Amino acid sequence: MSRGDASGVVGHPSTFEHSYQRRLMREAGVRHLVDSLHAMDEPLLRAVDAEAAAGAGQREGAFSSAELAH
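and the corresponding structure tokens:
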């Protein structure tokens, strides 16, 4: 993953008071951040997968998780 190409990524940054993880993830282009692992539900994963698949046409050799499951 390069900066700005964070499709397919769900960030779970630290809640440590002085942590920079949330800001750094945003700067890296991570669009989906969750505060707990329980927040990573099926609708979120489907949305992330759809975004990654939509961008896959722009990246040679990229596959969605649905394609990899077959």
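(Above: one complete record from the training split.) Residues 61-65 have pLDDT under 50 and may be disordered.
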